[in-house]
Design brief:
- This protein has 536 residues and is of the alpha/beta class.
- Among the domains are: 58 residues, Oligo-1,6-glucosidase, domain 2; 63 residues, Immunoglobulin-like (Sandwich).
- Helix content is 25%, strand content 14%.
- The strands form 4 sheets. The chain has an 8-stranded parallel β-sheet.
- Helix 5 runs parallel beside helix 6 and helix 11 packs parallel to helix 14.
- The protein starts with 17 loop residues before the first strand and ends with a strand.
- Bound molecules: 1-O-alpha-D-glucopyranosyl-D-fructose.
């Protein structure tokens, strides 16, 4: 029997929100210098309102040397001058709010930039100083300390580089990502205090939520022992100490009705759900769904497992198809291997973009019909493909730290095309954009798509407008032929069907066809790789 849906208030907005991820550097360029900025976002707020999204998640916009696209923060209380000023961020938050759009900022608690005042002070103060206790400094192993203190693997998938760097004074410091991103020591009370103050700083400025970067990596075994595959507990992933940290963060957020979304990549669903207990994080990204291949059984299992793992803790699921770290959806679904894995990224993978786009359209209707919140990554609504960036223009450290074998993540970070008939596809730049746009980029421009009723943009706008038809209650599967996903919401009032088989299928009885990802066949049946929304 279906559970009664508890009364919802405006404070529950996040339980079924559509949240749009803005990668500021590549969204829109307001000052013409080739890099996206807050002025560019402010100018495009009407576009986002028309798209119908409930909130914007901004990847880090703080002062940063941009060694990892801003995930190397030098000062959380300042905006990077490439993007704008703090006053401008405040204006942006307020202007978005006037359009009914909430703001989510990105906090990177695992590490800071090596240009952060704390790390500079730690370097200057030398071995044994209290300043160094805020990080993980250690003497090396080996006769002369010439070997790193332990053997932990880099957290940049595919990276062959060490996670320790030695200083001229002989000490080594830990960095799970690049050497420019030293890891903080979360056992130190000042580290905890500072982050709670940073949370308050942004909540005071009107943000509605915080995305937590690398949320399962902060806590480290104080002994920093070698990594032994399968040993429990892991010395740096998913340690129990994290839950106490997030419980105190939750108390801060509750003072402002703020919400958290954690970047928690964990294969173990029970361990994942612990972060979503009622006094911890509100939500976490669904990387299992993001990584899932375009396969009916696998998708259905992923949806069922997602709902089952969230149910015991009462947290809503999230549905994510891509973000700034992974291969764009239209490209991934157009390949032989439609799953996402960092390990399988390679140059020159054959791609059928027509097929991939068709599936991406169906996947959009699938994910927007599921119970929970949906994350949409800028350009996904334009159906942008992954771009193969010329090697001499790549900026992503993941590429370099793999020894050049991994194409890195810049291929999904290309400056957006806004206006077909304008320089740099209307990104706003007067000079070369920070990453090059490919030759056909204008064909994806938002202005063209706005005029084309068959475009990806129009599909997303319609889908987001109609999504309330699915409500926020549970999902029930209906029997369907092999290869077809069919579920209903609202006690059967709203149907979603996705046909992943080669055989066209008849539609069930319905009063209204709300939306289709593509046309029905001449017999009125749902063809392959097509999704449809129906009112019963
Ligand atoms: O990504 C974290 C990340 O790279 C994960 O894939 C990581 O490998 C995983 O947590 C290991 O368990 C975030 C950001 O999204 C990314 O852009 C940054 O480069 C990274 O953190 C470092 O801040």
């Amino acid at each position: 029997m279906a559970q009664p849906t508890p009364a919802r208030t405006h404070l529950d907005w996040w339980r079924s929100a559509v949240i749009y991820q803005v990668y500021v550097r590549s969204f829109a360029d307001g000052d013409g210098d080739g890099t996206g900025d807050l002025a560019g976002v402010r100018a495009r707020l009407p576009y986002l309102a028309e798209l119908g999204v409930d909130a914007l998640w901004f990847t880090p916009w703080y002062l940063s040397p941009l060694k990892d696209g801003g995930y190397d923060v030098a000062d959380y209380r300042a905006i990077d001058p490439a993007f704008g000023t703090l006053a401008e961020a405040e204006k942006l938050i307020a202007e978005a709010g006037e359009l009914g759009i909430r703001t989510i900022v990105d906090i990177v608690p695992n590490h800071v930039s090596d240009q952060h005042s704390w790390f500079r002070a730690a370097l200057a103060a030398g071995p044994g100083s209290p300043e160094r206790e805020l990080f993980h400094f250690r003497p090396g192993r080996g006769e002369h300390g010439e070997l790193p203190p332990n053997d932990w693997p880099s957290q940049f998938a595919g990276s062959t580089e060490p996670v320790w760097t030695r200083l001229p004074d002989g000490e080594w410091y830990l960095h799970l990502f690049t050497p420019e991103q030293p890891d903080l020591n979360w056992a130190h009370p000042a580290v905890r205090r500072e982050h709670e103050e940073v949370l308050r700083f942004w909540f005071e400025r009107g943000v509605a939520g915080v995305r937590i970067d690398s949320a399962a990596l902060l806590a480290k075994d104080p002994e920093l022992p070698d990594f032994v595959e399968g040993r429990d507990p892991n010395p740096f992933v998913d340690r129990d100490e994290l839950h106490d940290i997030y419980r105190s963060w939750r108390r801060v957020a509750d003072d402002y009705d703020g919400i958290f979304v954690g970047e928690v990549w964990l294969p173990d669903t029970e361990r994942f759900a612990r972060y979503l207990r009622p006094d911890e994080l509100h939500t976490a990204f669904n990387f299992a769904f993001l990584s899932c291949p375009w396969d009916p059984e696998r998708l259905r299992t992923s949806i069922d497992e997602t709902l089952a793992e969230h149910a015991p803790v009462g947290a809503p699921a999230t549905w994510v198809l891509c973000n700034h770290d992974v291969t764009r959806t239209a490209t991934r679904y157009g390949r032989e291997d439609t799953a996402f894995a960092f390990a399988t990224k390679a140059y020159g993978t054959p791609t059928d973009l027509v097929l991939g786009t068709r599936r991406a359209r169906a996947a959009a209707l699938l994910s927007l019909a599921l119970p929970g919140a949906v994350y949409l990554y800028q350009g996904e609504e334009l159906g942008l493909p992954e771009v193969e960036i010329p090697r001499d223009r790549i900026e992503d450290p993941m590429h370099f730290r793999s020894g050049g074998t991994d194409p890195g993540r810049d291929g999904c970070r290309v400056p957006l095309p806004w206006v077909a008939d304008a320089p740099y596809a209307g990104f706003g730049s007067q000079q070369e954009t920070w990453l090059p746009q490919p030759v056909n980029w204008s064909s994806y421009a938002a202005d063209l798509q706005a005029e084309d009723s068959g475009s990806m943009l129009r599909l997303y706008r319609e889908a987001i407008r109609l999504r309330p038809a699915f409500g926020d209650g549970p999902l029930t599967w209906r029997p369907a032929p092999d290869g077809v996903l069919h579920f209903v919401r609202q006690d059967g009032a709203a149907h979603c069907l996705v046909n992943l088989s080669a055989t066209p299928v008849d539609l069930p009885d319905h009063s209204e066809l709300l939306l289709g990802s593509g046309p029905l066949d001449p017999q009125g049946r749902l063809p392959q790789d097509t999704a449809v929304w129906l009112r019963a």
